[in-house]
Write a structure and sequence with these properties.
alpha/beta, Nucleotidyltransferase, domain 5, 3-stranded antiparallel beta sheet
Length: about 300
């Protein structure tokens, strides 16, 4: 799983031409994966011996001492794949770099594979992102929070809160002392109730965090998790969305909805069926170097 994250960092900020020059061949992709997996050199996982030979016809490494065989892709998101690594690298590039998201149909077209194959690639990569996200420390310091609903329109349905087919989520953005975004965390909740917010705060916010929110009645529950709460009555409409104290969390939510729309998620019910996975690509694009879509740089 770590290899997928390492590759995401490797393609960060590359133009498509630069990406193809660097990772356009199978040999180049294998070398990049080898360097990321075994920075200190390859050692036998069974006996620790560093003398291994390459079995090129089978794409294996074999220990000269105990004859243990090791495959480059074993234990990674690429394990047992029949696709070339160039296809996987290209998928990582499009998932990590695209501002508006990418649907499985469009990914299949770009990779030259069936839609079902592209769907599986996409969700394997998002699962790898999720494993890494779960290991991240809690948000701390100043944290902007806001509530939102994700999901597509339904003919004849009502708008806003309580609409059928909508998934409630909480977006939380940790900012620096200079009010620059540092980390983002998205959480699917059952509803905007005090018990849900308290549970979320205990899981995602470090004690002593300064939580800035609007005037929704559920937010004071963060204080039960040891956080300080600073509510602000924002009202509604465009003026509320442009308030400076909520600049980054509102920008984040706007970009997530754009990304999901680009991936055709609401249309095909993606948010309702896999809400946590749906939110991951925008989350990962936000991490490291601020946000490719929000701070104007990667």
């Amino acid at each position: 799983m770590a290899s997928a994250e390492g590759l995401r960092r490797s393609v960060k900020g590359l133009s498509e031409i630069e990406f193809r020059e660097r990772f356009g061949t199978e040999e180049a992709c294998r070398k990049a994966l080898f360097d990321m997996r075994w920075r200190e050199g390859l050692a036998c996982p069974a006996c620790g011996h560093r003398g291994l030979c390459a079995l090129k016809t089978r794409q294996l490494f074999q220990c000269n001492r105990c004859k243990k065989q090791v495959r480059l892709t074993a234990g990674t998101v690429f394990q047992d794949t029949k696709l070339p690594l160039t296809a996987w690298f290209t998928a990582i590039y499009h998932l990590a770099q695209g501002k508006n998201g990418i649907s499985s149909i469009e990914l299949a077209r770009r990779l030259g594979v069936k839609r079902q194959t592209a769907w599986l690639i996409k969700h394997k990569l998002m699962r790898a992102m999720g494993v890494r996200e779960a290991a991240k420390p809690k948000l701390a310091g100043r944290v902007e929070v806001d509530d939102a609903y994700l999901g597509g329109e339904r003919p004849g349905g009502k708008r806003g809160r309580g609409a059928a087919g909508k998934t409630p989520i909480v977006a939380a953005v940790e900012t620096t002392a200079e009010r620059r975004p540092r980390r983002l965390r998205l959480s699917v909740v059952k509803g905007f109730r005090k018990k849900e917010v308290e549970r979320l705060a205990e899981r995602d916010f470090a004690a002593g965090s300064n939580v800035v929110s609007d005037g929704l009645s559920c937010w004071p529950a963060v204080e039960k998790a040891g956080c300080q709460h600073f509510p602000m009555a924002t009202g509604s409409g465009k003026r509320a969305a442009s308030w400076a104290p909520f600049k980054w969390v509102n920008t984040c939510l706007g970009n997530i909805k754009t990304a999901l729309a680009g991936a055709s998620a609401p249309r095909f019910g993606l948010v309702g069926r896999w809400p946590k996975a749906s939110a991951l690509p925008p989350t990962m694009r936000w991490r490291r170097g601020h946000c490719t879509t929000c701070a104007g740089r990667w």
